[in-house]
Amino acid sequence: MNLKELSTLLGLSQTTVSRALNGYPEVSEVTRQKVMKAARKHNYAPNPRARGLATGRNHAVGHIIPLSKGHEMVNPVFADFIAGASEIYSRENIDMLLTVVPDSGEADAYRKIAAKGSVDGVIVHGPKADDPRIKLLRDIGMPFVVHGRSGSADENDYAWVDMNNQRAFERATKFLIDLGHRRIGLLNGLETMDFAAKRREGYRAALDAAGIAEDPSLCHSAEMTEEFGYVAAMNVLNRPDPATALLTSSIIIGYGVRRALDTLKLTIGKDVSLIVHDDELSYMRNGSSEPIYTATRSSVRLAGRICAEMLLEQIAHPERPPRHELLDADLIIGHTTGPAPR
Fold first, then answer.
1. What is the pTM of this model?
2. Which residues make beta-bridge pairs with 1?
């Protein structure tokens, strides 16, 4: 069914039907609901090109994904974020454009999609300290939301969704200290990334508050993979003064730690305590009825949904000030922590 046929069926003008479907405020709610109901019943879908001409928008949003030897964005965490964002895009009939580029071509990719006008806005992933992409997107006038923050003083001037990383890791470290642990290792993400830098700050704050000197040899930072977890855990555990507890920035790193413990014939939760960060990944669940790992937990899929909603709101209402969402992480007690060994 096309727009003309739907309009004839409803006894309304094509302009009214189009405006009702596209959310124009001058159309009454009664008329809007009537049009939406008929559109669903008769499987009417507006022509994207015509819809764009009518509204001045593309009804598409972009995600630019840099490929790098130093940091791989295409991972299970990113996949769950996209799944959450896609729930909102699907509900609002918004197309998603994924553009994969080398690190060096990321800035040009943003300029290109802005020049083409192929999307109405973008979500920025993996912000670094004083991330230059934020200034670039402001300069080219592209609506954007950052998943995370850039750690700069101007974070109130752009829209972002972030987890309180510092607070989460300070709380987790304090939990281990309260269990009697003094040799606590941190297996972190790349600390050029804002989230990892804040987690290190939280870890350090808890140690300082307890009067425990930070031992840099117990802290490792790299791409968050199972292999990194294994190698780093072997390093801090297979030594004369080993760590008695480990805090990891991902459940994926935690899998590597568990492999290292098996290799060293150490019992998790008894010989060595482990706290992971749990993004509630759909294919890497931390238990079903009860958690296996003690964890700081914050759903990355939820963050994806919030980012998408925030971006669409910003596109529809550019006059509104940028929104900020700071999500708290829960501390979930599982079976991988216990008192420090004597």
1. 0.82
2. none
